[in-house]
């Protein structure tokens, strides 16, 4: 005789319901925070390509002014490894949440200050010097933002959907790029004198509103259970960077090489923007709208790539996307320099679809190489050292580009080489999509 229970199913408790919502909430918090950080970062890149040579570097010839403006963009990346060491240390020592609140405020205030900065005609050479210092502060902030947001979301997620939820950090990056470009499109259509006198400041001043929203969303997020667990067991590393370089130096080197894929991002967002408009007469709004369409495409594609990575693994999705980028860079430049608006839009959308594969996967792929006590530091230091190449890609590209309609070929070869190096490094990594979060970073896993 079989007895069947007629007891009603127990409704989840308030604590359980809250716990079930935390992965989604963590993804939202990371999305909004990353959107602010990269809204600020991308408006600088756009202004460096279109505005700053005439506003802050007007005392030199136009070609030199462009190079100096792109150099100031790259200098932000020099600060990022330093910020990664400092913010990674505190992120692994005192927790993810506190450091993430600090990065928000630092980025927002630095960007607002750029919007208020007098130009070179007003304060002379002090203007580009102060601009560069503020760019350094932006770089310090960005160094800790993505790595902290990745750790926060990963450590709140279930084993089966870590890539999906963590990918929303990079979706926030795409949203920040979209927002930055949408703000710049009407601004760039202003008459030249108004654009250079006050119009360019509007995107920077609007960052104060984005900062307020992001801060209110982020400040109520609890610390991750993974960090609270190692803190409760007194397993927090006293000097996380020392432990990282002692036990995980191979993984740090691997992440540095994998992060070379980011050269594709700054190539399209900064160099191609200035190159197409100045050398081929493409209208500024056309290139800006191409960036918007590309990023909207990526915003849709990234969660789908992440879902696939949760099913089949991180490596095949990451490596496939990276190698596809290496191949597609050449038709991308052919179309962008064609002058056809339709061709430019199509080129941006196709390249962004394939770039969104590694872009969606790397937050989980890199973070899962490290155990919790050094995860923030490992991801931050590895990515920011790798991102140095991305930061100087516009400057390197400007120095490599040749004359004539095919002058872009050396640039495409350079970035394609970075993609191949990234794929080669990723091929040496462990596959982690089936590893329990408590075992991540352990050699026995």
General description of the model:
The protein has one domain: Up-down Bundle (Growth Hormone, Chain: A), CATH 1.20.1250.20. The protein has 20 helices and no strands.
User: How would you name the CATH homologous superfamily?
Assistant: MFS general substrate transporter like domains
CATH topology name, in short, is Growth Hormone, Chain: A
Would you tell me the structural class of the helices and strands? Answer: mainly alpha
**Can you write the helix and strand succession as a string?**
HHHHHHHHHHHHHHHHHHHH
Overall 3D shape: globular
Name given to the CATH architecture? Up-down Bundle
Radius of gyration: 22 Å
Can you identify the CATH class? Mainly Alpha
Number of domains: 1
Low-confidence sequence ranges: 1-18
Helix content: over 70%
Number of H- or I-type helical stretches: 20
Average per-residue pLDDT, rounded, comes to 87
Number of strands: 0
| Biggest sheet statistics | none
Strand content: under 5%
| Measured distance between first and last alpha carbons | 45 Å
Give the tags:
Growth Hormone, Chain: A, 78% helix, mainly alpha, 445 residues, 20 helices
Topology:
Blueprint lengths: L13 H37 L1 H4 L6 H32 L2 H21 L3 H4 L2 H31 L5 H27 L3 H8 L1 H5 L1 H12 L6 H8 L7 H8 L1 H10 L4 H17 L4 H29 L1 H23 L4 H27 L7 H17 L1 H8 L8 H19 L18
């Amino acid at each position: 005789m079989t007895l069947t229970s007629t007891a009603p199913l127990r409704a989840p408790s308030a604590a359980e319901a809250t716990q079930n919502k935390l992965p989604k909430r963590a993804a939202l918090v990371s999305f909004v925070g990353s959107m602010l950080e990269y809204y600020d970062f991308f408006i600088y890149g756009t202004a460096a390509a279109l505005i700053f040579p005439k506003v802050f570097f007007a005392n030199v010839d136009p070609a030199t002014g462009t190079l100096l403006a792109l150099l100031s963009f790259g200098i932000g990346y020099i600060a990022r490894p330093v910020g990664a060491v400092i913010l990674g240390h505190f992120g692994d020592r005192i927790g993810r949440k506190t450091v993430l609140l600090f990065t928000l405020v630092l980025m927002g205030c630095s960007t607002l200050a750029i919007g208020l900065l007098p130009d070179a005609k007003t304060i002379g050479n002090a203007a580009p010097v102060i601009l560069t210092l503020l760019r350094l502060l932006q770089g310090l902030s960005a160094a800790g933002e993505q790595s902290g947001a990745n750790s926060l979301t990963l450590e709140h997620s279930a084993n089966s959907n870590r890539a999906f939820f963590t990918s929303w950090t990079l979706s926030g990056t795409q949203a920040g790029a979209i927002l930055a470009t949408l703000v710049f499109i009407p601004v760039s259509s202003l008459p030249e004198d108004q654009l250079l006198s006050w119009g360019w400041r509007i995107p920077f001043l609007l960052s104060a509103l984005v900062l307020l929203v992001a801060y209110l969303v982020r400040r109520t997020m609890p610390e991750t259970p993974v960090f609270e667990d190692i803190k409760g067991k007194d397993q927090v590393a006293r000097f996380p960077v020392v432990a990282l370089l002692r036990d995980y130096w191979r993984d740090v080197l691997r992440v540095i090489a994998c992060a070379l894929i980011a050269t594709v991002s700054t190539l399209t967002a900064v160099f191609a923007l200035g190159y197409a408009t100045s050398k081929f007469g493409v209208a500024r709004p056309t290139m800006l709208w191409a960036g918007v369409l590309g990023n909207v495409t990526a915003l849709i594609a990234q969660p789908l790539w992440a879902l696939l990575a949760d099913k089949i693994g991180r490596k095949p999705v990451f490596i496939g996307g990276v190698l596809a980028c290496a191949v597609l860079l050449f038709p991308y430049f052919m179309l962008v320099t064609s002058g056809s608006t339709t061709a430019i839009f199509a080129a941006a959308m196709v390249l962004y679809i394939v770039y969104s594969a590694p872009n969606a996967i790397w937050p989980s792929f890199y973070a899962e190489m490290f155990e919790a006590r050094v995860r923030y530091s490992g991801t931050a230091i590895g990515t920011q050292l790798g991102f140095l190449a991305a930061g100087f890609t516009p400057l390197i590209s400007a120095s490599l580009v040749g004359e004539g309609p095919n002058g872009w070929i050396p640039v495409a070869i350079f970035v394609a080489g970075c993609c191949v190096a990234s794929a080669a490094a990723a091929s040496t990594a462990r596959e982690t999509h089936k590893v329990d979060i408590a075992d991540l970073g352990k050699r026995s896993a």
